[in-house]
Amino acid sequence: MLVSKDFCAWIAIDGVEVPEYGPESSETGQEYSCWIPSEVGKTFTVHWTNLSAPGLTGGGVQVDGHKCGFEAMASETRPISAFMDGIAETSTKTRPFVFAPLQLTGRFHFTADNQLTICQDDDAYLESASHPNLGLIKLEIWRVDIGGGGMAQSVAIPSSQKVHERSKKGMNQQITFGAAVEHAQVQNAQIRRIGHSPLVSFSFRYRSLDLLQANGIAPAQDRPEKRKASGSPEPAENDDADATEAEILKVCSH
């Protein structure tokens, strides 16, 4: 997981925390990023924990440049965690995040089993706007005020993006939204973001594992054992620094 001074964040596929590669942070300590392996057909969830920041905070999630909603933490309890598993279609239905094959308008199209089929070029898409945020899951955490209630507001479900084969830039996946999952009715509150910028942002750049390996981001033979998001790593004995880090991981994993 990515850990800042006051927050941590991670991605889970089918409830299991995914490994992270090449973590980086800005000099200001407000931006953190890494690479994660994605799997076609798998659902995923964005998790975060407020470890120690005072006041009320909330997180906004974007996938492939699409805004997917905002989740506030309406409690002063620390640590406190939240997650987002999709877009709210209605107050009782959520469309889950799903990794899917990239839809190409150029010569090739990736199928569900990651095979290529030949299509007809459509050069009109080559001249269209680029997709700078394709392949990016972004979480921004803000300080917030929370006001009156109401029913949860739905978010428009974006269409799958189409990219010309010559401009896909090493991508072979995108994020789509699965069939609606019904749940109990969600109450909505008026949330106002405070300040001109988020307290911290976490960026997860996803690619298939073979692409990460081919580009030297993930070890070529690495098949890491995935750890349940609820797991509790054991602190190293007789090492205060390692013990402190282990405690942070333990808190963030709940």
From TrEMBL:
Residues 215-246 are annotated as: Disordered. Residues 11-219 form the DUF7918 domain. Residues 236-245 have a biased composition (Acidic residues). InterPro entries: DUF7918 (IPR057678). Pfam families: DUF7918 (PF25534). This is DUF7918 domain-containing protein. The lineage of its organism: Eukaryota, Fungi, Dikarya, Basidiomycota, Agaricomycotina.
